[in-house]
Specification:
The structure holds two protein chains of two kinds. Chain A is mainly alpha-helical. Chain A is 86% helix and 4% strand. A two-stranded antiparallel sheet of chain A has the order 1-2. Chain B is mainly α. Classes of the chains: A mainly alpha, B mainly alpha.
């Protein structure tokens, strides 16, 4: 797919930003949080799924009264989801947003000229 | 009349009371839709509510859009009959939201206008890709709609005492008319307010019922579990995994396939993703998802108590005997606890739930057809926006009609199960191309087409050749009733009920293969623009209020 001339002019401005150090830092920061978080929660989730499928005996071991490991494990999936959500929200507000804002302002100023 | 007597007669509670509460709720939501609608003149108003909702408002609305009859009636029903295995649905339905939060919400809001096809178009600028994205959006939405209509059918037959087949079909037609009305009159704004009100009602209702069950059990989870296991014919087995999915190796893989579809499907659901365009910017989109996760998580904790509560207080045999089977576990539980009044309220909330979700699905499907197929493909992006909205309205009517007809055929299938199939199609056909176009520099239009059509055809194809559709000799583990009842008509070449474990990796693989073998050179400028816009929000669509 080729671009039209005017699109080309418009797009190449993005290429400059895309190659800039600030943008690469932003992307690296995002990746350094998001990638481990995804690996962690998917790994944790599939560990649970595989235990539920192939180790039901383990999941049935009771912990307190009728509450067994399976229920605790399931509840911990809720806990991990809430924790990742809260941590990510705080991190994004403090670390990610200021960087993204600076880049956006620069780009928007650049566009007006 | 005693509870048992009335259930044997196929009706629970007093139909007159139920009808009165239903009518009240329907009237209230209609008033909300009409008064919230305001002016729905521009495409941005109609599709995205002017992008003027706040993060919390939208987060609650997404909860209202997402927590469907599958969650309220379906999951609790599966827990009530099969115990722990139903809980696995709740977990997958929740955990999948992290993918939306971490990868999709902000970038999608920054790079699209109304539909996910917009995002692919920005990156690949190829009309066939837009058409493919629209086809998969429409397919997922229709599957999801079918599930909701099935839920509506069984609910209505249980509560209104409508037992004749024509009577049920008529009530489905009424549901269809209502949803068309919300969407035509209310647009995205009206639909959003209906979803917000419904989410609050649903959560309150589930919280009250949960509290009630826990009070009966002396606020001891252990006691609740003990009573439930004692009441169940399966005994202690209901407290651990395996009753539904642990029967044999096939059913275990069935379960893994289902889990994969649930966790990856959320981020591919078009009606959820479209709601991200109703807020002013990516930050509010992220805030929306945080609110949704809190709301949805809380709700799924309630369903666990509701399910075991129904197992204990209602009992498997009564649930099995009721019209609508597992889908009626929660209404029966409400009747057991609070009599006619609570039953009426719970049922009306469940009904409002279905209406809000079908309205959201209808607006998504109609937007996809009008914006992507009509305007993007047929008119090559040069349609008049007013004309596009008119096309969207006509499409909404068509989709409503199709959903009613489909619902008539799917009345007795478990709702959560049908929704899980929609998740599998969403994860296969939508998710790979969204992720690739946002994050993979070498992704090409050919890769997108291979991935979308490959995912769509393989997931739908495997469902058709699975025990879900085909007749099959004996019930395998985790089996559901198939669409074809005759066991001799057996074309179940694929042994699993859920296609996810095959179709999702296949769609990712095809997206990769189609791209790396594509001879057209990749234009790095498009990816640069895509990523800069996705991460910084430059050039994102603005709110009509700013």
């Amino acid at each position: 797919m080729s671009l039209t001339q005017s699109e080309r002019g418009n797009v190449s401005g993005y290429e400059v930003v895309h190659a800039s150090r600030e943008f690469r830092t932003l992307r690296r920061h995002l990746g350094s949080f998001v990638v481990p978080a995804i690996v962690l929660f998917l790994g944790w989730y599939f560990l649970y799924v595989i235990l539920a499928a192939f180790a039901p005996g383990f999941m049935r071991i009771t912990v307190a009264g009728e509450v067994n490991i399976g229920l605790c494990f399931g509840a911990l999936q809720f806990v991990s989801t809430f924790v990742i959500t809260i941590v990510y929200r705080r991190w994004a507000r403090r670390r990610l947003d200021p960087q993204a804002d600076r880049l956006r302002q620069r780009l928007e100023v650049g566009r007006k000229h | 009349m005693t509870a048992a007597g009335s259930i044997a007669a196929g009706v629970v509670g007093t139909p007159a009371v139920n009808i009165a509460i239903f009518a009240f709720f329907v009237l209230a939501t209609l008033i909300i839709a009409v008064s919230a609608a305001g002016q729905n003149r521009t495409a941005t108003d109609y599709y995205a509510g002017g992008r003027a909702f706040t993060g919390p408002q939208n987060g609650i609305a997404i909860g209202g859009d997402y927590l469907s009859a599958a969650s309220f009636l379906g999951i609790a029903g599966i827990i009530a009959l099969n115990g722990y295995d139903g809980f696995l649905y709740s977990i997958g339905f929740l955990v999948g939201w992290l993918l939306v939060l971490l990868l999709v919400a902000g970038p999608l809001r920054n790079t699209g206008r109304y539909t996910t096809a917009d995002v692919l178009d920005l990156r690949l600028k190829a009309t066939p890709v837009r058409a493919a994205a629209a086809v998969s959006t429409l397919t997922v939405s229709l599957f999801y709609l079918l599930a909701q209509m099935a839920g509506a059918g069984s609910l209505v037959s249980l509560l209104l005492g409508v037992r004749s087949s024509q009577g049920q079909d008529l009530t489905l037609a009424v549901v269809g008319l209502l949803m068309i009305f919300y969407v035509l009159v209310g647009g995205m704004k009206g639909t959003t307010w209906v979803q917000i009100v419904k989410a609050v009602l649903l959560l309150t209702c589930a919280a009250v019922t949960t509290f009630w069950v826990m009070a009966r059990a002396g606020f001891s989870l252990s006691a609740l579990l003990r009573h439930a296991a004692a009441a169940s014919p399966a005994g202690q087995a209901v407290l651990g995994p395996g009753l539904l999915y642990g029967v044999n190796t096939v059913s275990k893989f069935n379960f893994i396939s289902l889990s994969l579809a649930l966790v990856l499907g959320v981020a591919g659901l078009p009606h959820v993703l479209m709601r991200l365009y109703t807020v002013p910017n990516a930050r509010e989109a992220r805030r929306s998802v945080v609110w949704t996760i809190s709301l949805v998580g809380l709700f799924y904790l309630f369903t666990l108590v509701l399910g075991y509560g129904a197992m204990w207080l209602v009992g498997a045999s009564q649930i099995e005997a009721a019209p609508g089977k597992d889908n009626s576990a929660v209404p029966l539980l409400a009747y057991n606890l609070g009599g006619t009044l609570l039953l009426g309220i719970v049922a009306a909330v469940a009904f409002a739930t279905i209406l809000a979700v079908v309205a959201g699905l209808t607006i998504t499907a109609s937007a996809s057809f009008a914006h992507d197929v009509y305007s993007g493909v047929l008119r090559r992006g040069e349609a008049d926006p007013g004309q596009e909205v008119r096309v969207a309205r006509v499409t909404a009517v068509v989709i409503g009609t199709v959903a009613v007809i489909g619902g008539i055929y799917a009345k007795d299938v478990d709702v959560a199960f049908l929704v899980a199939l929609a998740f599998a199609i969403a994860a296969s056909a939508n998710l790979p191309s969204i992720l690739y176009s946002l994050f993979w520099p070498r992704f090409t239009a050919r890769g997108a087409l291979w991935s979308i059509y490959g995912g769509l055809i393989s997931s739908v194809g495997l469902i058709i050749f699975s025990p879900v559709v085909s007749g099959h000799p004996s019930a395998a583990g985790g089996a559901v009733p198939s669409l074809i009842g005759d066991p001799h008509i057996n074309f179940a070449f694929f042994p699993l009920d859920n296609p996810g474990i095959v179709s999702i990796p296949l769609a990712f693989f095809l997206g990769w293969l189609g791209s790396v073998t594509d001879l057209h050179p990749v234009d790095p400028a498009r990816f640069a623009r895509m990523q800069v816009r996705a991460l910084t929000g430059v050039g994102a669509e603005r709110s009509s209020r700013s």
